Amino acid sequence: MQPRVILDTPQFALTIDRLCYQLIENHNDFTDAVLIGVQPRGTFLSNRIYQRLQQLQPGLKLDYGKLDITFYRDDFRRRETPLAASETELDFSIEGKKVVLVDDVLYTGRTIRAAMDALLDFGRPQRVELLTLIDRRFTRHLPIEANYVGKKIDSIASEIVRVEWHDQDGADKVWILTVNKDN
Amino acid sequence: MAALSVNHLLGIQYLTNEDIELIFKTADQFKDVLNRPIKKVPSLRDITIANLFFENSTRTRISFELAEKRLSADIVNFSASTSSTKKGETLIDTVNNILAMKVDMVVMRHASPGACVFLSKHIDAQIVNAGDGTHEHPTQALLDAYSMREKLKLTDFKGLRVAILGDITHSRVALSNIFCLKKLGAEVLLCGPPTLIPKHIEALGVRVTHNVKEALNWCDVANVLRIQLERQDIKYFPSLREYSLYYGVNKELLDNLNKKITIMHPGPINRGVELSSDAADSDQSIILQQVENGVAIRMAVLYLLAEKAKRV
Fold first, then answer.
1. How high is the mean pLDDT of chain B?
2. Spatial CA neighbour of B265 closest among B252, B248, B243
3. What is the pLDDT of residues B203-244, one digit of tens each?
4. Which residues numbered 116-145 in B keep a CB inside 8 Å of some CB on A?
5. Is B270 part of a structural domain of the chain?
6. I need a surface site. Which of A155, B116, B124, B168 has the fewest CB within 10 A?
């Protein structure tokens, strides 16, 4: 099947805006809230959310960090191609904070399980929420759901969802591609 | 690719530059883990590691043990002085007996050069060389280069000048350091009494001098090695006092250079022999940083090799 766009650039911007407003609705001035992007690709989304929140609420004070989960994954020694670790940047305490975890695509839920384990090694947050741009429905391996969702889609296992970013790939877009088994 | 090209860490000579770079990058992340409130990750939960030390060690054994514990591996320790090797068991038998108890990886120190290479051909487990006689001590060379990279904020070792001073003949640290630094593109100068520098060592692409002042004036980093009296079966120099006089590094020598060089030592230091206390404790010395980095480097090596261990 041909790759198809499920979020084009204008829709993408609207979705980011909506997610930001939902965060503001729940967290007001973000007292005790922290924003944490999951490495590697979740941080593109968290960067964007953080920037947009700053524009919407000038002078906003919000701790923002990045979390690498490579050493917490449950597929270590079981993957065909090993993953390289990325950097963790958390120079604040999460003890008693309301954490918003950010990742681009919610699929099996295993990444988020690993992220929660990694997070708890830094302290005991008051609450953990999950924000995701794309939620692939009916594909979960674990009982994990997102609190803030950009778009829910139905897809099958042989398809992959690719999120492209302006800074990285030239334009903000989300694609569905079919994996070609012949390659 | 985030995988090593080798199945064992037997020596630096078997590694590619990409392997070394991958180990450094992984160690960066583990160094960060070691500074967290919970200094531990669950990666090696399902791995059991045997630490086989057929030769004495304090630093290396503790460093490996800590690295293994920080990765959540299960460990068993073995030291030759309290074991059945005294009853005449062969190396392969000893190791196979331990492996029969379902051990996935082996960290071994042995007095015979090549013991790890030999073992890797006969047993089915990942092997990490923690020093084999006068041959190699790969994790030490990796942590030495990693500490230089960190201290001097290097992105590239090309043009870096490293002097290795002392007992080169009996030092596995020297040989691994030479392999590692030459691979990374640094220039290496060896300095010591003629009796303690192997003949034809220039074939490895290093220069040799017998003048400590010349070596220190030339280098950016001086790695001072211990005089290994336990491996010296004959007299290689008249007395420790004379060695110290001609080849010892002290603060006065360092202060008379027209630049500030970095001092390293793999430990244990014979204070007042190869290195004086005022030099070892000066702000130019990164000896304790080397020890700190050792845990992160060993975590990286074990983590990357565990990927190669037999799957469940």
1. 92
2. B248
3. 999 999 999 999 999 999 999 999 887 777 778 888 889 999
4. none
5. yes
6. B124
Q: Which of B29, B46, B311 sits opposite A68 (nearest CB)?
A: B29
CA pair distance B199, A127, nearest whole angstrom: 67
Q: Cβ–Cβ contacts within 10 Å for residue A29, how many? A: 12
What b/e string do you get for B239-255 counting C-beta neighbours within 10 Å, with b at 16 or more? Answer: eeeebbeebbbbbebbe
- Asked if the Cβ–Cβ distance from B37 to A122 is below 8 Å, we say yes
CB contact under 8 A, B309 and A78: no
Question: Which ipTM did the prediction report?
Answer: 0.82
Which residues does chain B have within 8 Å of residue A122's beta carbon, measured at their own beta carbons? 36-38
Torsion of CA B25, B30, B34, B37, to 10 degrees: 120
Domains and their CATH numbers in chain A: 10-155 (3.40.50.2020)
Residue B311 placed within a domain: no
Nearest to B29 among A87, A117, A123 (CB): A87
Residues B123 and B96: their CA atoms lie apart, in Å, by 7
Q: Which DSSP symbol is given to A132?
A: E
The reply to whether residue B311 touches residue A77, judged by beta carbons under 8 angstroms, is: yes
Q: Which residues 6+ apart lie within 8 Å of B258 measured at CB?
A: B217
* CB pair distance less than 8 Å for B29 and A76: no
Closest residue of A to B43, CA-based? A71
Do A84 and B41 make contact, defined as CB atoms within 8 angstroms? Answer: no
Domain for residue B117, yes or no?
A: yes
Q: How many domains does chain B have?
A: 2
- Please identify among residues 19-48 of chain B the ones whose CB lies closer than 8 Å to any CB of chain A: 22, 25-26, 28-29, 32-33, 36-38, 40-43, 46
**Sorting pLDDT into bands at 50, 70 and 90, what band is B198?**
very high
Q: Which two three-digit tokens encode residue B46?
A: 């399902």
Nearest Cα residue to A176 out of A1, A41, A9, A13: A1
Closest CB from A68, A78, A88 relative to B311: A78
pLDDT, tens digit, 9 for 90 and up, residues A107-156: 999 999 999 999 999 999 999 999 999 999 999 999 999 999 999 999 88
Q: Do B2 and A84 count as a contact with CB atoms less than 8 A apart?
A: yes
User: What is the Rg, in whole angstroms, of the alpha carbon atoms belonging to chain B?
Assistant: 19
Count residue pairs from A and B with Cβ separation < 8 A: 54
CB contact under 8 A, A81 and B42: no
Residue B2 within any structural domain of the chain: no
Asked if B68 contacts B90 with a C-beta cutoff of 8 angstroms, the reply is no
CA–CA separation, A50 and A48 (whole Å): 5
